[in-house]
Amino acid sequence: MSSSNTAEPVTDASDLSYMPGFGNDFETESLPGALPRGQNSPQNCAYGLYAEQLSGSPFTAPRGTNERSWLYRIRPSVRHTGRFSTTELPLWRSAPANHEAVLSLQQMRWSPTPLPTDKTNFLQGIRTMTTAGDVMAQSGMASHVYVANTDMVDDYCFNADGEMLILPQQGTLSVFTELGKMHVGPGEMCVIPRGVTFKVALPHGEARGYICENYGAKLTLPDRGPIGANCLANPRDFKTPVACFEDKETDCTVTIKWCGRLYQTTIDHSPIDVVAWHGNYAPYKYDLANFSPVGALLFDHPDPSIFTVLTAPTDEAGTANVDFVIFPPRWLVAENTFRPPWYHRNIMSEFMGLIHGQYDAKEEGFIPGGISLHNMMLPHGPDYAGFEKATSADLAPQKLDNTLAFMFETRFPQHMTNYAAELDTVQNDYVDCWSNLKRKFDGTPNPGS
Q1: Which of 144, 183, 204, 301 is catalytic?
Q2: How many structural domains are present in the chain?
Q3: pLDDT tens for residues 77-96?
């Protein structure tokens, strides 16, 4: 049993508590005795609270995939909505966006998205780069960047379309959800489940990062196969927040994303009022430095799937709606091997970003905060400088350090938005990074083979 104080603001990450484990059944209360014992829905709850179930799966889902949490809150959530009106966050788009007149059949790269000069909170700062699949069919995903410089104070949101994986690149986020509060900084990630209300504050000022909005099956840990029981992302390193609530009687706005459109409702209190909860449907965070990579110990470069942190599966085994993949610090030791990621074409579509450092397949142009897009079956791989460096390198053991890149990868084609295509940060010369890869074939065997 863990607990947290009530509505007092938290400005330091050390003030927060978390419960370890991935997909565990948790229980937590922020007032003693708020959590019922031995039942879910007593006739009268302690402190005059209301009992409410939040389901993240159908009621009849198998035990291994059944998700629900019981919440004990100041008001039931029917009081957290009123009459809806449509609203616009014009740069937050949903799939399918292929009606936008944008050619996505090309290798694309962008420099970092500029930080805003006008007051912009987290919601207002979401800019959709690509969409894939169909939000109405609950399949596919969208890739976004966010830029922000202002707290959400009396503004709240919940996304009925999908869960949100948030990946800061610059600046820390204080993510206050119905089920507790998380501090998430560069090098960490968090996931807000579908339908969970939240707001975001910026304890250290300006912030920029990436979001994967997953419309499909929830993100889970990938099967390790022959790797066995350990390494990659270990369950114990995932952290779920303890109960923490706001008891605030002020005018508040709740923005709801539903079926690809945005709506607003106004209420006279905070909707983040869960005093206690138990269950397995909850937000969580993860420090990517805890990822334990595995790799080749003798020769060749394994498929990048060995770097999968989380995956959202489909009915087709091994084919993901979304994979979240990282390329963290690691040792390279393979003998007689081209060590960077090789040239390849892939049935999956890859949206890639860089948190910090340098990515080993690109010597220039791909900088922290940047983005690349390699759609399904489009060839890509090391630039000319990266190829020349790798083919002439001394193959002594090498530590790749001070680097963290990631991919949002999906089985669907990712369609660029008009916003992405028209950004001033588009690197129109990106495809030229391969132009110096000239013919080397001369019919003579490679003496090193």
Answers
A1: 301
A2: 2
A3: 999 998 999 999 999 999 99
